[in-house]
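forwarding from the other thread:

> can someone predict this with sulfopyruvate?

sure thing
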Amino acid sequence: MASRLREKLAEDQLLHVMAAHSPLSAKLVEEAGFDGVWASGFELAALYGLPDLSFVSMTQHLDMVRAMSGSTHLPIVADIDTGYGNAINVTHVIAEYERAGAAAVVIEDKTFPKVSSLATTGRQQELLRIEEFQGKIAAALASRRDPNFVVIARTEALIAGLGEAEAVKRAAAYESAGADMILIHSKQKTPDEVESFVRAWSGAAPIVIVPTAYPEMNEMRISAFGKIRMVIYGNHAIRATVAAMKDVFARIRRDGGILTVDKDIVSVEEIFRLQGMDRVKITEKRFLR
Ligand code: SPV
Ligand code: MG
């Protein structure tokens, strides 16, 4: 799977990566024609009804990635937050995610426990010392078994309010530590901050963005910057899920039954299809005597 991601990256196209929080949603990402699945920490935390504050453990996230890799052929880009510890922990984490079937990881330069990047808790986002994070990147590179496994270094300098110069400095330091790609994150409501960073970026490492906060940065606008090679739609699976459930639940309560919503939701047969019931029928014929 890592080699497929590398091949796609070599094609010089923008890769479209959609968030998922379950094997089922990963399958839907594939059917919709995306290039990869974002195993989002935010989505999984939300699925458990928890804030994205390092409450969800590595094991929980890893189990989900492992299950996803059984349900999709797409490369999985795993969100490993801060790497669940220091550089030594990262050596273990990378081995585990590679074994679980991930093609790439995104590791961010915040301290543990992390605070959700888009949150407005008033808490200061703390970043690691540059040298320490370089050590985590080096540990990740040294621990991957497949050299095609992609290590994406994410700087939260803009999220922490430290400005573009600090973001560029960190990105350059992470590239020199060997990061394959740089993820620049921003929670500004317009693309200006990210676009300015991309213009200032003179490194060779391609850029990844997550335009949740600045949705007007569509793919046409992103593609104008050749340096941005991956766009991650960070939380649209869980948000779509919540919107759909709220609507259907409210209508069932209002109507006192399920008759009117029935035509607006997928059929049981469609769920059977997604579950692979067709294969069950074949194996029944073959083996049940
Ligand atoms: C996630 O989806 O978990 C991310 C992206 O890391 S964000 O929530 O915007 O930080
Ligand atoms: Mg995350």
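The first strand starts at residue 15 and ends at 20. thats all i got for now
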